Amino acid sequence: MVIDMNDEKLKTLDQIRNFMTGTEGVEFCHQPEKDNRYQHIEDALCRLRYYSLDKADKGLVLRYLEHTTGYSRQQMTRLVRRYLDTGRLRKRYKAPVKGFRKKYTSEDLILLAETDNVHENLSGLATAHILWRQFHVYRDNRYRRLASISTSHLYNLRERPGYIGMREHWEKTRRSTVSIGERRAPAPDNRPGFIRIDSVHQGDRDGIKGVYNINAVDCVIQWEVVATCENISEAFLMPVLEQLLDEFPFTIMGFHSDNGSEYINHEVSKLLEKMRVEFTKSRPRHSGDNALAETKNGAVVRKHLGYSYIPQHLAEEVNSFCRDYLNPYLNYHRPCLFPEEIKDSKGKVRKRYPRRLVMTPLEKLLSLEDCGKYLKEGVTVESLLEKAGMCTDNEAAAELAAAKKRLFQSVSRRSRTAG
After folding, report:
1. How many CB atoms lie within 10 A of CB 265?
2. Using an 8 Å Cβ cutoff, are 132 and 174 in contact?
């Protein structure tokens, strides 16, 4: 049952007082429409001439309105003050817009999907840095909103149906367990030129070995060079190893490998001695010493060259692909994560990877103090910046993807022809 109350006959304070006494145990069910309650308050204040009452009578009127409207004393005091100031009570707010306004549009999802496609799904930190570079470094206004996206929200966008519909299916890199160790760890002391090196075998077929990929990474700035040879014997490895060392723009001061016989031999030792390079090798139960090279094996070599068998006679073609497309992309356009070490109260060192330390290897090199002194003769900072500025990060990734497609089509065609 619904009862509508008409209080127009309550015109005096005595009537109000008697009403309050008679309805002391009555609870009112208030309607949600604020316009009706505002009108009730306005009529009562006008009818009882609230502005001319003394303090005690004003308190009685306020208690009456609190009882009939359901408002708190503080809210009722604010409404009465507003009525006295303006002479009327009206809603001062608009109905809220349904839902929240989206900051990132469908066009942003397309750009993010395209970026992830060409860079083959990098981590959130690395992708966010690429989006920032597309706008701030390469002045691409399409990335204005994405340039400031947080890493956590980037993962939120990757979960949206509009993004998922534009993405290809990717398999996670399979982990390869390798038992490694070092006899002495290199001590770069924040100087570039101390590289870690490892070999990655490119599959077998019917007992026949495929090509071998040589992966070398600088342990300070993560400058990386990948090269390919037919076999890891001395005749095939040494020319590729010399080419690989020559591709680094800075002077090589340290060479670190595991205990594989392809590196622990007299010929490699003579080459490094001729270059005045410090040669270190593995020691047992210290697998973390060469972890950077092993990580790059999975994140770079396996990601771009896969696990499939590539015949040894195609080594030169794969090596040209690495030299002309893969290595420039890795060092000028692919961001890397650099740790920040924090020592807690117990003395334990913990590593974090903040956004400000996400950089490409070239950016990391340029961030070092007086970086020019580490460069080889004939290599300048300007020449490196010129190479990096020849295309944007996305353009370099797209060129790499196209070259990779041509490479594997050629490998497939020539493998069938040879068979």
Report:
1. 13
2. no
The answer to whether 239 touches 267, Cβ cutoff 8 Å, is no
CA-based diameter of the chain, in Å? 114
Query: Would you mind telling me the total number of residues written for the chain in this entry?
Result: 419
Beta strands in 114-237 (DSSP E): 182-183, 194-201, 204-205, 208-209, 212-218, 224-229
Q: Would you give the distance in Å from CA 265 to the centre of its chain?
A: 42
Question: Which pair of structure tokens corresponds to residue 282?
Answer: 């593995």
Structure tokens at 47: 């009818």
Whole-model pTM over 0.90: no
Distance CA 137, CA 132 (A): 8
- Is the Cβ–Cβ distance between 304 and 404 less than 8 Å? yes
- Name the helix (H) or strand (E) containing 359: strand 358-359
Give the pLDDT confidence of 311-326 residue by residue, as tens digits: 998 999 999 999 999 9
- Per-chain mean pLDDT for the chain: 84
**Phi and psi based region of residue 7 (left: phi greater than 0; alpha: psi -120 to 50; beta: remaining):** alpha
Q: 28 in helix, strand or coil? A: coil
> What confidence tier does 37 reach under pLDDT thresholds 50, 70, 90?
confident
Tell me the HSE value of 398 on the side-chain side, using a 13 A CA sphere: 8
**DSSP symbol at 379:** -
DSSP, collapsed to helix, strand or coil, labels residue 75 as helix
